[in-house]
Amino acid sequence: MQMNDYSLKIEKFKNGIFDLRTRRFGTVAEIMIKKLYGLNESGTLAFDKRDTVTNARVEIKFSTALKKNEEAINDQNVFQQVMDADYKTRAIFSYEAEIYDFDSNIQQIKGKEFDILYYGLFFWDQIEIFKVTRLEVLNFENYSNKQHRGNVGEGQFHLNRRNIGLHRDHFLQRVLSYPELYELLQEEN
Hints:
Elements: H1 3-19, H2 22-37, E1 39-41, E2 49-51, E3 57-64, H3 78-84, H4 87-90, E4 103-109, E5 116-122, E6 127-133, H5 134-138, E7 155-160, H6 164-171, E8 172-176, H7 178-186
Parallel strand pairs: 3-5
Antiparallel strand pairs: 1-2, 2-3, 4-7, 5-6, 6-8
């Protein structure tokens, strides 16, 4: 296979990841972490995976890193905002994380249901994987134990330009390239 063909496949693969939404995107992240760290299925809906060595309950939460929209949608610009919506113009590179405003919400964290949290960001050039304990998450300065009105036991925190350095300095576990992820996801179990 020529390098050009391989590069095109990697670009299509990366575009596909950024096109996925909600549950489908989350499943890709779960499989990535499962394969990277040799985790097992949890056997329950309470948490995502189980560590095969320590038997720890593992939760996995990821987001794409996108520049903040410059304009809110309103009655006057709704059509144009829809026509101009394109993640490729908003996806940021990892080295831009402390320059551009972005807000990646790591949500639906059920604090009593896990021991370890893998979380991270899909930047345009790489994936950053962070790892923390339940206690560390609950003590994050910007952790909120209220996600929705009436919600009990589920919280969230945000990764953004102002705090990405803290997460990189203290909780960064691994950086993965898209070619590495491409190869990892093609491996047989």
